[in-house]
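in:
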């Protein structure tokens, strides 16, 4: 969210020269980077980025006088928004792609499976070179999943999926190999172990948070995809660079996502 540097008001007019004009005090200013959206000191921000890189939840910092818990939570959301934005801007996948869906959420009483209450359905695509893209869904609808496949992959790709009938139309778009299972294990040499391994990786990362607010789940999912896709790199300089180069307006739509 862009704030006026003089009065901290969030509403403004955009001028023809690209600058912003505050609707309250009339101050003219340029759009700031995400790094400058927080009022924390630079030293504190660097420390928090280091802790975020190590995967330390906010509640584990309660005995350290770094900053208040709400301030740390807001800064971490900015980092996750930058991670999600970076993953969203990737080129469509091509080549060999694995597709699968899963649910996220704690144990619930009542119905199990796709209709369980309180669960979030996530659709994922994994390019066989190890790059992942995951998107939360409102429901397990075949038309929506095929739309996402068309949006995030290039025609002519080779798709590996399970035997759900919604994937049948992928044969028109490219190659399609159906992986069938017996007692949870794939029959033959074809598999989708890559994306199933990512689901395990994602749930392992979410476990220490002791529950994630549903309205911010897409940010946590973006963070996990960023971590997975850069798992062989040092995340600290990558995150610092993102925060200083990403404009605050680019992350607004992610931070105010409808529940």
């Amino acid at each position: 969210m862009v704030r006026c540097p003089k009065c901290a008001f969030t509403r403004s007019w955009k001028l023809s020269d690209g600058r912003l004009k505050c609707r309250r005090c009339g101050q003219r200013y340029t759009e700031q980077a995400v790094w400058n959206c927080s009022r924390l000191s630079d030293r504190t921000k660097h420390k928090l980025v280091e802790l975020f890189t190590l995967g330390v939840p906010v509640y584990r910092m309660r005995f350290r006088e770094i900053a208040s818990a709400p301030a740390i939570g807001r800064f971490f959301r900015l980092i996750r928004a930058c991670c999600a934005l970076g993953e969203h801007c990737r080129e469509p996948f091509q080549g060999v792609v694995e597709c699968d869906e899963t649910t996220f959420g704690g144990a619930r009483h009542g119905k199990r499976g796709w209709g369980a209450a309180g669960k979030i359905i996530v659709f994922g695509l994994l390019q066989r070179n190890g790059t992942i893209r995951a998107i939360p869904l409102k429901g397990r609808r075949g038309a929506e999943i095929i739309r996402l496949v068309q949006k995030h992959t290039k025609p002519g790709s080779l798709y590996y999926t399970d035997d759900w009938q919604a994937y049948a139309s992928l044969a028109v778009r490219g190659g399609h190999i159906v992986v069938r299972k017996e007692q949870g294990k794939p029959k033959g040499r074809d598999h989708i172990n890559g994306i199933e391994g990512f689901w395990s990786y994602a749930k392992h990362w979410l476990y220490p948070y002791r529950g994630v607010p549903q309205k911010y789940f897409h940010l946590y999912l973006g963070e996990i995809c960023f971590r997975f896709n850069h798992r062989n790199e040092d995340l600290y300089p990558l995150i610092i660079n993102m925060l200083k180069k990403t404009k605050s307006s680019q992350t607004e739509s992610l931070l105010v996502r409808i529940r």
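note: The longest strand covers residues 96-104.
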